[in-house]
Amino acid sequence: MTSRRTMLAGAVGIAFCSCGLLKAAHAQGQPTPRQAVTVNGRRVKTIDVHAHCVFPDSAAQLGPEGGPPPATTRGNDETTIDLAQRLRAMDSQKVDMEVLSVNPYWYGKPRELASQIVRINNEKMAEFCAANSERFAGFASLTLQAPELAVRELETAMRRQGLKGAAIGGSVAGVDFSDPRFHPVWAKAEELGATLFIHPAGVPQLSHRLAGNGWLANAIGNPLDTTIALSHLIFEGTLDRFPGLRILAAHGGGYLGGYGERSDHACFVNPPECNPAITLQKKPSEYLKQIWFDSLVFTPEAIRHLAAQVGPGQIMLGSDYPFPWALEPVDHIFACDSLSDEQKLDVLGMTAAKVLNIPV
């Protein structure tokens, strides 16, 4: 019998990509039951802020040149809606809630087409999350190539659709987010308390050098894209202009979490490469302490280093599901001896619940 939740998922046309993770997790027997996660006896609602979905109605309009990774990529091998399957996968990962996002492949599309894609995404995201509010929340999509339209979309998403902010790329057609044309969007996000989840799309300008073995366009290009995006927001004074802006950076924020202090020395070493008209209010590395980062950095040592750089209170659980970058995101945090019990509670869900206004 088809469950009511599965029918609701089908009604809004949501498609979850799978990667064989579920099959591997349950190959030896019955599906793993949902497990309550506790830290030293304290229950925590685990919230994965980095999880993806696709809406077929909008994805069909993107065309092959603007679509997601190729079908050969693990995570793209299933597009049929199966809410029960996604819930089983979450249960096996000990994840209570996913905050869903759609990667923004429409920035190069004409305004009207892009706005139609975004409208479908946001309506279906809102409908699905409302129907399954115990397990899912969502980030909106924005037509950022038309900032005045993005402002209206963000307001609708936050005030009427119950979404938690917006998922954005690393730039728009090569234009960085520090460009003044985007200031109205950031001002609206600051006003609404909307979180902007920066998820990279690589650096196509380096496609030739990133070709070859190792899928470098993603392995290196994606974190580099985030690093560039955050660096421009810092060095161009955007974070000074909008000090209340809530930014969440995917993949541990790229390379700044491991190399932030180099940014502090750049203008000292080579002043002609820095604009004397821009006077930052603090050292570049200090801005990292007002940005949030997902935990997708692979090892307990990397978590230790990221927490030392940005503060453990700035890290949220992230898996990149259904792409198999972090198959056991909760266990990964439990393995971090460098985090106290209180800090583990924050990373696993308390910080996300506070920042994204999610009931616990």
Secondary-structure map:
Elements lengths: L3 H9 L8 H6 L10 E3 L2 E3 L2 E6 L3 H4 L23 H11 L3 E5 L9 H21 L4 E3 L8 H13 L5 E4 L14 H10 L2 E4 L17 H4 L1 H15 L2 H4 L4 E4 L6 H14 L22 E3 L5 H11 L4 E2 L12 H6 L6 H16 L4
Parallel strand pairs: 3-4, 4-5, 6-7, 7-8, 8-9, 9-10
Antiparallel strand pairs: 1-2
Helix pairs in contact: 1-5, 6-7
Provide a brief overview of the structure.
The chain is an alpha/beta fold and 360 residues long. It has 14 helices and 10 strands. Helix 11 (256-269) links the parallel strand 8 and strand 9.
Explain this structure.
The chain has 360 residues and is α/β, with parallel strands linked by helices. It has one domain: TIM Barrel (Alpha-Beta Barrel), CATH 3.20.20. The protein has helices at 4-12, 21-26, 56-59, 83-93, 111-131, 147-159, 183-192, 216-219, 221-235, 238-241, 256-269, 300-310, 329-334, 341-356, and strands at 37-39, 42-44, 47-52, 97-101, 136-138, 165-168, 195-198, 246-249, 292-294, 315-316. The strands form 3 sheets. A 5-stranded parallel beta sheet has the order 6-7-8-9-10. Mean pLDDT is 89; it is low at 1-11 and 15-29.
pLDDT average, as an integer?
89
Number of beta-strand segments: 10
CATH architecture level-2 label: Alpha-Beta Barrel
Rg result: 20 Å
% residues in beta strands: 5-15%
Helix content: 40-55%
CATH H-level superfamily title: Metal-dependent hydrolases
Provide the succession of SSEs.
HHEEEHHEHEHEHEHHHEHEHEHH
| Largest sheet: spatial strand order | 6-7-8-9-10
Sheet with the most strands, sense and barrel status = 5 strands, parallel
